[in-house]
Automatic annotation (TrEMBL):
The keyword Cell membrane is assigned to this record: no
Family to which the UniProt record says this protein belongs: Belongs to the ribulokinase family.
Entry-linked NCBIfam families: L-ribulokinase (TIGR01234), PRK04123.1 (NF003154)
Protein name: Ribulokinase
High-level lineage: Bacteria, Bacillati, Actinomycetota, Actinomycetes, Geodermatophilales
Organism listed in the record: Klenkia brasiliensis
Compositional bias annotation for Low complexity: 563-580
SUPFAM superfamilies reported in the protein's UniProt record: Actin-like ATPase domain
PANTHER family according to UniProt: FGGY CARBOHYDRATE KINASE DOMAIN-CONTAINING PROTEIN (PTHR43435:SF4), RIBULOKINASE (PTHR43435)
Catalyzed reactions: L-ribulose + ATP = L-ribulose 5-phosphate + ADP + H(+); D-ribulose + ATP = D-ribulose 5-phosphate + ADP + H(+)
EC number from the UniProt entry: 2.7.1.16
Gene (UniProt): araB
Gene3D superfamilies (UniProt xref): 1.20.58.2240, 3.30.420.40
One Pfam family, short name: FGGY_N
GO molecular function, one term: D-ribulokinase activity
Length: 588
């Protein structure tokens, strides 16, 4: 019997990547990437002179199909395999990315009557213009004591399905009325491949507020807006497919696009971060996967349901069937390191790095690694892009304490590296304090190439640290699900064992350094609660960071002559696509 192969396609923010994988052992034979022709539409609507308002981020759905037309056949060709031996294809996507469609799946922006209407286009995950609608969703849910709110750390994001849907209704009711389905892009691309619309359990749970088999009630939705009462049954609800399930067979048209055999298995869609867990062989309870790049997304399975403070969601079957999938995150990690290098490093350091042919990140890492724990005399808070978990407050900002005239750039750089590790430890302790043990940390993403950073995380978190053994974690994870959908492996755990790639225990905590870091972490915790809990919360201290943010907004409004704006804290999304796009720059 000849070897069998599958194709995994990872849809990021700016491009899609296809990888050809051998079913028997997970060997990655070739990959190909296709950039989206329209990239992110955040300035001007295509084909018009209309300028988009602030915080809008749209995409053109035909760009996603172009990935199937170009990257998939290119990867198969470069792999040197017979397309007849490919038995399945699966995709993962950024989330929450939403497509308004007709009953047959046609995006509304492709209809002549709506081609010039911004609400007819795909709303990308980082479309944040629905924040006022998210504020109302959260305030009403808290007021009514909706049982689903604690499953999301107490706040629903402006990036998710309901906030974006409510914005569409209230800002363009004509487009809303013409829309038959409000579709996650993760499900829309599967629909294009197999002709079947199936909602995947992952996005439905994490982004669609689906808990215990249902969505927010009609009564609750009507209280938001009477015309929103039927949103679930009219626009959203559909058959739910479990991860790894076969959604359908490849259509004749999609076979022509991809060069793959008609009728092969098409797996139910998935999310880029969550699909990485099986690729890293990290789906057992206690194995937390940290997908680290510009930001970090933490996902893990558990056998029991718990409400963890500040988590971004807990969903039954959200990572693998039969277990509860948990998600948390940090909204700034590599982005913080990048910000520091871009804004705070003297020219002499840049020159020294250039003369050695290394990056400034690498130079600072080398200098920081020469220090003893605590030698810099600093402690920092990793909130330069807000706090996602566990405080769930995007209005917080970064803090570096202890600087003197003797403080050097490598001192501050190391303190920032440590701060992100302290943030991950805070998340781990929140899980363990809620009865969800974390026994192993498994890292994926571009930052795992920084060996000093990885050892630092192991020391601070006092846990062995494993690393994924693949540069294509999401695409490999999709390929694993394709193999299951094709029947080549009985289930996702079995496919993960056969095809996943991980290096176990690459880093183990050094007892002496860990003890010293405990002292620094205690100081981090004090600062965390003093600046993060707020004056009106138990254990809180000072709201100065919020007041500074308000002053900044007021000053900016005065300078530009615009009205001051306010925002309610909300958890920003951490998506593997942002990691994907910048991880090469930030890996040192």
């Amino acid at each position: 019997m000849s070897e069998q192969y599958v194709v995994g396609v990872d849809y990021g923010t700016l491009s899609g990547r296809a990888v050809v994988v051998r079913v028997s052992d997970g060997a990655e034979l070739a990959s190909a990437t296709h950039p989206y022709g329209h990239a992110v539409v955040d300035r001007e609507l295509p084909g018009t002179a209309e300028l988009l308002p602030p915080d809008w981020a749209l995409q053109v759905p035909s760009d996603y199909v172009d990935v199937l037309r170009t990257a998939v056949p290119a990867a198969v060709r470069d792999a040197g395999v017979d397309p007849a031996d490919v038995v399945g294809i699966a995709t993962d996507f950024t989330a929450c990315t939403m497509v308004p469609t007709t009953a047959d799946g046609t995006p509304l922006c492709e209809l002549p009557e709506f081609a010039g209407r911004k609400h007819a286009y795909v709303k990308l995950w980082k479309h944040h213009a629905a924040q006022p609608h998210a504020d109302r969703i959260n305030a009403l849910a808290a007021e009514r004591g909706e049982s689903w709110l604690p499953r999301y750390g107490g706040l629903i994001s402006s990036e998710w399905e309901f906030a974006k849907g409510l914005q569409l209704l209230e800002e363009d009711p004509e487009v809303y009325a013409a829309m038959d389905h409000w579709v996650e892009a993760a499900d829309w691309i599967v629909w294009q491949l197999c002709g079947e619309y199936v909602r995947n359990a992952c996005t439905a749970g994490y982004k669609g507020i689906r808990q215990d088999g249902g969505y927010p009630s009609r009564d609750y939705l009507a209280a938001l807006n009477p015309d929103f009462a039927g949103f679930v049954e009219d626009k959203l609800d559909h058959r739910i497919g479990e991860l790894g399930e076969r959604a359908g067979g490849l259509t004749r048209e999609a076979a022509q696009w991809t060069g793959l055999p008609e009728g092969i298995a098409v797996a139910v869609g998935n999310v880029d971060a969550h699909v990485t867990a099986p690729a890293a062989q990290a789906i057992e309870p206690g194995q937390m996967v940290a997908i680290m790049g510009t930001s970090t997304c933490h996902v893990m399975n558990g056998d029991t349901l718990a409400e963890v403070p500040g988590m971004c969601g807990v969903v039954e079957g959200g990572i693998t069937a039969g277990r509860y999938g948990y998600e948390a995150g940090q909204s700034g990690v590599g982005d913080i390191f990048g910000w520091f290098v871009d804004t705070s490093v003297p020219p002499a350091y840049v020159q020294a790095a250039g003369e050695r042919g290394i990056s400034v990140h690498q130079l600072l890492t080398e200098l920081a690694a020469q220090q003893e724990v605590g030698e810099h005399g600093l402690v920092a808070l990793d909130w330069h892009n807000g706090n996602r978990s566990v405080l769930v407050d995007a209005e917080l900002s970064g803090v570096v304490l202890g600087q003197t005239l003797a403080t050097r750039p490598e001192d501050t750089y190391r303190a920032l590296l440590e701060a992100t590790a302290f943030g991950t430890r805070t998340i781990i302790e929140a899980f363990e304090g809620s009865g969800v043990p974390v026994t192993e940390l498994v890292v994926a993403g571009g930052l795992l190439k920084n060996t000093f950073l990885m050892q630092l995380y192991s020391d601070i978190c006092r846990r062995p640290l494993s690393t994924i053994d693949s540069d294509q974690g999401p695409a490999l994870g999709s390929a694993i699900h394709a193999a299951v959908a094709a029947g080549a492996h009985p289930d996702v755990p079995a496919a993960s064992r056969a095809m996943g790639k991980v290096l176990r225990g690459v880093y183990t905590p050094d007892a002496e350094r860990a003890d010293r870091y405990d002292v620094l972490f205690a100081e981090y915790e004090r600062l965390h609660d003093f600046f993060g809990r707020g004056e009106d919360q138990p254990g809180g201290g000072n709201d100065v960071l919020h007041r500074l943010r308000a002053l900044r907004r007021d000053a900016a409004a005065r300078r530009t002559g615009s009205a001051p704006t306010t925002a309610t804290p909300v958890a920003p999304e951490v998506e593997a696509p942002a990691i994907e796009e910048q991880s090469d720059v930030l890996s040192v």
